[in-house]
Amino acid sequence: MIDKKDVEYAAGLAQLKLTESEKEKYTEQIGQILNYVDKLGELDTEGVVPTAYTVPMKNVLREDKVTESLPREKTLANAPDQKDGQFRTPKIMSD
Amino acid sequence: MNIFDLTIHELKDKLAAGELTAAEIKAAFSDRIAEVDPQVKSYLTVTDELSEKQLANYDSAKEAALAGIPIAVKDNMSTDGITTTCASKMLENYRPPYNATVVEKLNQAGAVIMGKTNMDEFAMGSSTENSAFFNTHNPWNLNHAPGGSSGGSAAAVAAGECAAALGSDTGGSIRQPASYCGVVGLKPTYGLVSRYGLVAFASSLDQIGPITKDVEDTAILMNVIAGHDEKDSTSVKREKEDYTAYLKEDVSQLKIGIPAEYFELDFDQEVKDSVLAAVEKLKEAGATVETVHMTDAAYALAAYYVIAPAEASSNLARYDGVRYGLRSEETADVTTMFTNTRYQGFGDEVKRRIMIGTYALSSGYYDAYYLKAQKARTLIKDDFDRIFNDFDLIITPTAPNTAIELGSKSDPLEMYYTDIFTVPINIAGVPAMSIPCGFDSNEMPIGLQLIGPHFGEGKIIQAAYTLEKLLALKNKRAEL
Fold it and tell me: Quick check: is B325 in a domain?
């Protein structure tokens, strides 16, 4: 069964801040959902090949040639912060 | 009938006959939006500037399939320079730098895009109540939800706020709201319609499709939006079909399966009776109808609630406050910025699904959840393939109930259960349509689901077209 520590761990992986009350709520709700999902254990899947996509296709390739791409100005237009034609983030390395 | 009640093909006929001009049509639908949208609240954005521009092009596009036809687009399909919010605070001010392929196709077909419709945030939900902005109301009864996640699109069609709309369907998000709003909704075969520019939720399940007032309009819209797109690597290369060629009143050659296990589930008796009565009509019209046996749909729902959140947790990792979308004011360092941005930008259901998906994919649980669900997916798909070796179509209800009252369901699992009949179709990647088959004792619409084999849209359209004629419900409109 999932506990609060599992929820905190998953939230960390997902880069998601949660309040204490959200942690408790999600522990309970996700527990119930996973409990429902455990139903899958009743299915015999011995030797069954997993399906990722239902339409059979793989290695979809295109010609390796340069085509038009979005202009830089348009691409940056939605950026919360930018400098010198680049995306700017808060500092990544600690001091 | 009012102009805003007319279907695409009726509007096209009137344009061709010179009984209406494109400007009159546009004005009628704009007036209708002004009149009823304050109550129905289908639209997140009314795209006046765009629709006026498209209308101005009418004379040069007169021969195109949708010339002068007012269409609504769900707000998870990218529109160049026009806000595409996915009903999320995360994308409240996001203006995509390009058009989704389906939007390009609508443009080329001469459509007049009236606006962007409300939805559950990032298409996660079954009632449109997960919109970060406001609720949409069911035109048949404003106290009820329109269904979801394409609730705004379905409500806009039902309320005459557009001639037809596009929705997207990951686990029932076109068909369930179409059912609740008494309109027609088709989820095409996975890969038939390009997903380029559709904001990704669960990439192996998502598919764009039409929501319309009748089956003929579905065929017309499918002719416009279906087709291979090199910008979507999962889009399928196959010869273009003319879906209007299937608009025939004939089911005598069709063999239809009725899955016993689906009808044995505990759900609304009025829905069950209405769907079975419609099946009886198809039988009288010459279709062969037989009971079939399928794996319990509950396994598909269980597999869905692993696969969809897992893919969502991965797809939604991109919302980090760097390139577009919301950025939190908390910017002491980059991790603080990431976690606060995601905390402020995502709503409750989105966070819940990111959490489930992250957990199911995390080390130690991957085999038990994600791999197991993908194996279950194979069994469910094989089940459909096996039946479609002998049968042309399968019929089930679209939803186990009619539209729920707004605010009546707060338990996530209970809400998920309204997708019990629609989810298996996305898991198998096959096409399915919801068409109205009756009304319950509260005068709320009931939907019937026609499921076909991969690329069996033609057979679905033919059977649905026949059934629509037999039931004679299609001119019934919600009164507002």
Answer: no
